[in-house]
Design brief:
27% of the residues lie in helices and 30% in strands. The chain is of the alpha+beta class and 220 residues long. The protein has a domain of 150 residues: 3-Layer(aba) Sandwich (Aminopeptidase), CATH 3.40.630.30. A nine-stranded mixed sheet has the order 7-8-6-5-4-3-2-1-9, with helices on both faces. The longest helix is centred in the N-terminal third of the chain and has 18 residues.
């Protein structure tokens, strides 16, 4: 699509493909949300959207992508990729930024269908968007956060080299909980082998990037 080149943007790793979803992908992603994202005793999200009934989780999963596309601007964007593993849509990996042209900083968030946990997919898909951020878009920093009891997310951050960046206290289901912030700099990032970016060049203005970065590790 000439006027929305983001639909052709793809990230590939040794096991995964990340892409902006088509309608069939959104349907599959909604199924993953309806099936369950985490154990019932957990709540890894600041907005407890997974407390909703399965059909509402499915519908809201589709709607959030429509909202992101409809409000996208170079100064304020959220890019949510579906993650495909063994030909299945298994979850979503988001990267977002405000005033990226100035700040050169992105933030990330993600979720996986519960039955796909424990396979290393979460680490690999976050590494894919970090490669896009640092090598493709020229970001200086990437940040993330997780509640202190979300051991899996914090383990991914440690594995990828993030450093602790302070804490915050948030209201989660009516209780105060600690959130750990983490940050990774471009200088500390090392792209694993086999990570590539495809069809990036036409998308750069939509990310607030004036021209391509030469070390993208794949055809821009």
């Amino acid at each position: 699509m000439r006027h929305w080149p983001l639909l052709a943007l793809r990230l590939t790793t040794p096991r995964l493909e990340l892409r902006l979803p088509g309608l069939d992908d959104l349907d599959a992603l909604a199924d993953r949300a309806a099936e369950g994202v985490h154990d019932s005793g957990e709540m890894p999200f600041g907005e407890p959207w997974t407390d909703a009934p399965p059909h509402e989780r499915a519908r809201s999963t589709v709607q959030v992508h429509f909202r992101q596309w409809g409000t996208w601007s170079p100064g304020h964007w959220a890019c949510s990729f579906v993650t495909v593993w063994e030909s299945q849509v298994v979850g979503v990996q988001e990267m977002r930024a405000v005033d990226f042209a100035v700040t050169r900083e992105v933030a990330t968030g993600s979720w996986l269908g519960r039955r796909f946990h424990g396979k290393g997919i979460g680490t690999e898909m976050r590494a894919a968007v970090l490669h896009l951020a640092f090598a493709g878009l020229g970001a200086r920093y990437a940040r993330s956060s997780a509640f202190a009891d979300n051991a899996a997310s914090l383990a991914v951050s440690r594995k990828l080299g993030y450093r602790e960046d302070g804490i915050g206290v948030f209201n989660r289901r009516g209780e105060a909980v600690v959130q750990q912030r983490v940050r990774l700099s471009r200088d500390e990032w090392r792209t694993p082998d086999g990570f590539e970016i495809h069809n990036l060049a036409p998308c750069l203005p939509l990310f607030g990037v004036a021209e391509g970065i030469t070390d993208a590790g794949g055809a821009p």
